[in-house]
Write a structure and sequence with these properties.
4-stranded mixed sheet, 8 strands
Length: 141
């Protein structure tokens, strides 16, 4: 059975959106883009939350022919994501969190308070202050 892997960026203090639902407050750099592309290319199916799907649906198609788009952004265009509201943590096998070096001090918390994830792996990215932390969701499952 395929794994359900959630990939998200979060601040060092655990928020995936800043105040006012501002996702652009997070350090989405080349490492974030490259890791997301790596996961998309390894996936059988890509599921996005409804808000992310609406946002990306307007952005990614334009990347295919944009001469200023990075190779990574052009490659994203080949993915065909499905919109969903799959956010129930009991369905998730792994959490791949790209932790930015930014503290937001408020916003939307990434994890439910009852969740106690177990660290499986970490990775540093060359030329980036972001860090990948791979977790098993833990006792919330």
């Amino acid at each position: 059975m395929p794994k359900i892997i959630v990939v998200n960026i979060c601040s060092v203090d655990g928020y995936y959106e800043g105040p006012g639902n501002n996702v652009m407050a997070l350090p989405m750099d080349h490492a974030f883009d490259s890791y997301n592309l790596e996961r998309i290319q390894a996936a059988d199916t890509v599921l996005l939350g409804a808000a992310s799907y609406r946002m990306f649906n307007g952005f990614w198609p334009a990347m295919a022919n944009d001469p200023q788009a990075s190779c990574t952004h052009r490659a994203f265009r080949a993915a065909e994501p499905y919109g969903t509201t799959c956010s129930r943590t009991e369905m998730v096998d792994e959490l791949h969190l790209i932790v930015g070096d930014t503290a937001l001090g408020g916003g939307t918390s990434l994890l439910p308070a009852a969740m106690t994830p177990r660290l499986l792996d970490t990775r540093r990215f060359d030329g980036s202050d972001n860090l990948l932390a791979v977790y098993s969701p833990g006792s919330d499952r």
